[in-house]
Amino acid sequence: MAVKIRLARHGRKASPFYHIVAADSRKSRDGKFIEKIGTYNPKTNPATVELKFDRALYWLEVGAETTDTARSILKHEGVLYMKHLKGGVKKGAFDEKALEAKFQAFLDAKEKKAAEYASKVKSNAESFAKKKFEEEVEINKQREAKIAEKNAALAAAEEAKKAEEAAAAAEESAEATAEEAPAAEATETPAE
Q: 42 preceded by cis ω (within 30°)?
């Protein structure tokens, strides 16, 4: 029986969620497994991995193969590095204290990298939000300028209409006074 460490897909359509399992390589992807050793959620940013470190290390030490994706997850979590370090201890290259120191340095570097990535994601999100806000402000200014321009054109048209009405009214009153003046002269002439 060949044991593989691989991912078993769960979750709904377009929202995958994986279980990291040790399974017989002859079984189907989502079928029966020997042991569940963790979970992997690629939909979060950064991807979330929960792993039983000691069980994953055990399966690697007893000869379990890994799929490409499972290998990259185990590498990121440090399981493969720990297996490598334990091989060095067995060969006598260094002792347990050196193993602990090297692995702690690995974990510290991983934490630092994760913190840098999280701050980068946060700053990118903030700059994106700021850029979107500035674009909205610019669009609103352009919209307000168009509205002001339209209102000014309407006000000018209304002023012109009022001026025409005033001119027409003045013209009508001038015509009315001009008509009244001859009539008044006509009534005054016979009296003399």
A: no
The verdict on residue 126 lying in a domain is no
As given in the structure block, the two tokens for residue 173 are: 């009153």
pLDDT of 141 higher than 60: yes
CATH number of domain containing 7: 3.30.1320.10
Q: Say if residue 26's pLDDT is above 80.
A: yes
Q: Please give the single-letter amino acid code of residue 51.
A: L
Please give the pLDDT value at position 186.
56
- Output the pLDDT for position 187: 60
Q: Are 60 and 46 in contact (CB under 8 A)?
A: no
Q: How many domains does the chain have?
A: 1
The helix or strand, by DSSP H or E, that contains position 7, with its residue range, turns out to be strand 3-12
pLDDT value at 185 more than 70? no
The answer to the question of residue 106 being in a domain is no
Phi, psi torsion values for 11, nearest 5 degrees = 90, 170
- Measured in degrees and rounded to the nearest 5, phi and psi for residue 76 equal -65, -35
94 within 8 A of 88, measured Cβ to Cβ: yes
CA-based nearest residue to 42, from 66, 8, 17:
17
DSSP H helical segments within 19-95, as ranges?
Answer: 53-61, 68-77, 79-91
* Backbone angles phi and psi of 18, in degrees to 5: -115, 145
> Which pair of structure tokens corresponds to residue 70?
């499972």
